[in-house]
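Example S7 (structure tokens).
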């Protein structure tokens, strides 16, 4: 029974269109994050900025200060590789190259904004690009395909497991966010007093404040604070259901957008991975539906021409 469930979860028939959509989403998102930051600049910062960057971390990411020109060159190569991945040009090369360079470049941001090189915008992208590079993600919506039937006839499950795996990468962000709330703080995290504290705390960080008023409105209402606390934990822990019950995506994915919009307005925290939620859309179904709607129109135009 467990083996049957396991095979059904990972190796059910998949769609090349949905896998290609995931390739485009992750590549374009990573390119957007990369171009919105001047990561290479950090390499030429004074030595005092590198005091807490231990030798083990430097060798782990192959980061050595004082080579800004080289880092700019690598950043440019990463951008080109991401463009190649987005259009489906030799994804095994462009995808793996982009993932490797992003792994190297990502910690440069942490010298300024945060001492932790994880979860700064590239973590999920690096994992996803590595998986997609090893999958047949260019069999649809790519310059190498251009609408033609793939040269190699593949079993349908080869399009399924890579998509499920990258969806799992994103879903676990929510799962472990809920887990960490309960593990580090306990059930008290959902108490109105705790939620009120966080609302007041984030409303005092002047350098991060863009939206004002929502946090104070929530903090003044204990019942609303309690609903926010319970709702946040419940949502984090329930998001994983999108992997096992696809119909739940109709509710949970739009709810996730509202969830992050609320966090942005109240706490001025933008979830940078938000666009990656597009990988949960059934693009194959959507494309077929649009094609069926366009077919009668095309048939009508043809009949007019014949007459």
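Recovered sequence:
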């Amino acid at each position: 029974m467990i083996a049957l469930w396991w095979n059904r979860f990972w190796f059910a028939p998949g769609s090349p269109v949905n896998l290609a959509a995931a390739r485009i989403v992750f590549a374009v998102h990573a390119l957007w994050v990369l171009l919105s930051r001047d990561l290479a600049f950090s390499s030429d910062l004074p030595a005092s900025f590198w005091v807490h960057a231990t030798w083990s971390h430097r060798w782990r990411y192959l980061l050595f200060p004082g080579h800004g020109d080289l880092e700019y060159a690598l950043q440019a190569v990463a951008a080109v590789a991401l463009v190649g991945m987005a259009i489906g040009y030799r994804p095994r090369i462009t995808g793996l190259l982009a993932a490797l360079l992003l792994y190297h470049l990502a910690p440069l941001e942490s010298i300024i904004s945060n001492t932790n090189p994880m979860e700064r915008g590239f973590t999920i992208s690096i994992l996803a690009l590595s998986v997609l590079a090893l999958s047949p993600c260019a069999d649809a919506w790519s310059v190498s395909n251009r609408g033609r039937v793939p040269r190699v006839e593949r079993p349908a499950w080869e399009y399924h497991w890579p998509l499920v795996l990258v969806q799992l990468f994103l879903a676990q962000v929510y799962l472990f966010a809920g887990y960490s709330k309960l593990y580090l703080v306990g059930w008290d995290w959902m108490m109105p007093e705790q939620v009120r504290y966080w609302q007041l705390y984030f409303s005092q960080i002047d350098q991060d404040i863009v939206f004002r008023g929502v946090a104070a409105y929530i903090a003044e209402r204990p019942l609303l604070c309690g609903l926010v606390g319970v709702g946040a934990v419940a949502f984090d822990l329930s998001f994983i259901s999108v992997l096992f019950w696809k119909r739940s995506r109709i509710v949970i994915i739009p709810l996730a957008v509202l969830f992050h919009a609320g966090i942005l307005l109240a706490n001025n925290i933008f979830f940078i991975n938000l666009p990656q939620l597009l990988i949960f859309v059934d693009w194959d179904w959507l494309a077929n539906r649009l094609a069926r709607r366009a077919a009668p129109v095309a048939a009508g135009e043809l009949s007019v021409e014949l007459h």
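Notes on this example. DSSP finds 13 helices and no strands in the chain.
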